Amino acid sequence: MQMIDPLFQRVLVKECQSCKIPVIFDEVFTGFWRLGRESAAELLGCVPDVACYGKLLTGGVIPLAATLATEAVFIAFTGDSKIKALLHGHSYSAHPMGCTAAAKSMQWFKDPCTNPNVNVEERRLKELWDTEVVLQLSTHSAVRRVVTLGTLCAIELSAEGSNAGYASVYTSSLVQKLREDGIYVRPLGNVIYLMCGPCTPPQICYEQLTKVHQAIDQFSQSQPRKI
């Protein structure tokens, strides 16, 4: 899991827009507090021309997606002929249950009465992952690096050769062990990551991360030693 320098992204967006190249943000995964801010656009301080949202838009309880566009993009598809129009529509477009869930979800996430994790003044989530446990994991002999951002905690295990990279199955036994303990992490090669909700109590995150730390201890001890 690679984190791109925010400054590079801001400069890239600025250069594209100065050259009249439309900028599209895929926020299906990152939107609605996933990265600690309400959107990646807000985190970067950028305004894309088009942005796509889903997943946490409804709190994950029912499918719904939304595509937003600037006025300039919208006007580009207006005219007297449907040849110019963006003929977009589905059988379940704007279905009432999804829209109701989305309206409630967006309100729920940003209200400190329903989400004690939100810092209203700074418009961000409070730190969810215990810094001491993160530090312990970061210095673990079996771990190359740890990245936490908002509701995400990604752990890259030290691996070489065929054990490293996206296609690796290096973490299979570790993932299985964690599932037996009721913890569902997603493997990306030799990287595993946890993802909580914007309203998840930090204590739950602490307990989950502590179990992951213990499982990595056992996992590292079971690996063949280099001679």
Automatic annotation (TrEMBL):
Coarse class of the protein's main subcellular location: mitochondrion
One annotated GO molecular function: adenosylmethionine-8-amino-7-oxononanoate transaminase activity
Pfam family, one: Aminotran_3
GO BP terms in the entry: biotin biosynthetic process
The entry's keywords: Aminotransferase, Pyridoxal phosphate, Transferase
InterPro entries listed in its UniProt record: Aminotrans_3 (IPR005814), Aminotrans_3_PPA_site (IPR049704), PyrdxlP-dep_Trfase (IPR015424), PyrdxlP-dep_Trfase_major (IPR015421), PyrdxlP-dep_Trfase_small (IPR015422)
Location(s) in or outside the cell: Mitochondrion
Gene3D superfamilies: Aspartate Aminotransferase, domain 1, Type I PLP-dependent aspartate aminotransferase-like (Major domain)
GO CC, any one term: mitochondrion
Name assigned to this protein: Adenosylmethionine-8-amino-7-oxononanoate aminotransferase
Organism the protein comes from: Anthurium amnicola
Gene: bioA_8
